[in-house]
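Revision sheet: structure tokens.
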Amino acid sequence: MGTVINVFTVLIGSTIGFLLQKSFSRELKELMLQGIGLVTVLVGVQMGLKTENILIPLFGLLLGGIIGFLMRLDYWLDQFGHSLAHRFASGENNSRFVQGFVTASLIFCAGPMTILGSLNDGLSGDYHLLVLKSTLDGFTSLALTASLGAGVFFSIFTIIIVQGSFTLLAFYLRPFFSPDVITETAAVGGLIIIGLGIVILELRKMKIANFLPAIFVVPLLVKLIHLFTK
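Predicted:
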């Protein structure tokens, strides 16, 4: 239910943003994007600081980044965005379309609220956190679409796949998700979000999608630590 609500709010926000984008000047669009970048960094810092063992997100990012690099996740996400752009956008807007799709996909799916909300939804059926996330995503999608165009709209596919998968995994693997697993997974998600904020603010180019496997590596690291410290 949480994922369905999330898709619905992003659809509404993207539609409004698309209809209003011609009303905003280039400078205003850049300002809105910078605002999103700053808030993205803030959210990432808040969640990253909740880690109880900094080595876990560190090794999670390193191992996850290696896995993502070998799988070429950033490349394939970018290629998927280009295939959508080729089909739904004109040639001159392709780059902006892809940027909108990739940026929105990462903001909506790599964040701590995605992880925690999906886990709550899958473990106990409590989707209130995803409702809050959905509300925020709705406003964010409006601003992103006004700034980057229709590519943001297609991030709903990423939400369905990633967030839906998290919820189903949590449902079928309930005993695996102890409180410390959830905490450290959210922390590494926060670090990924910080990286995304850096990209949005154009401080440095980073292949953020390659770090996504860290979200799955960290729970395994936590369980290994439990195994060897008993």
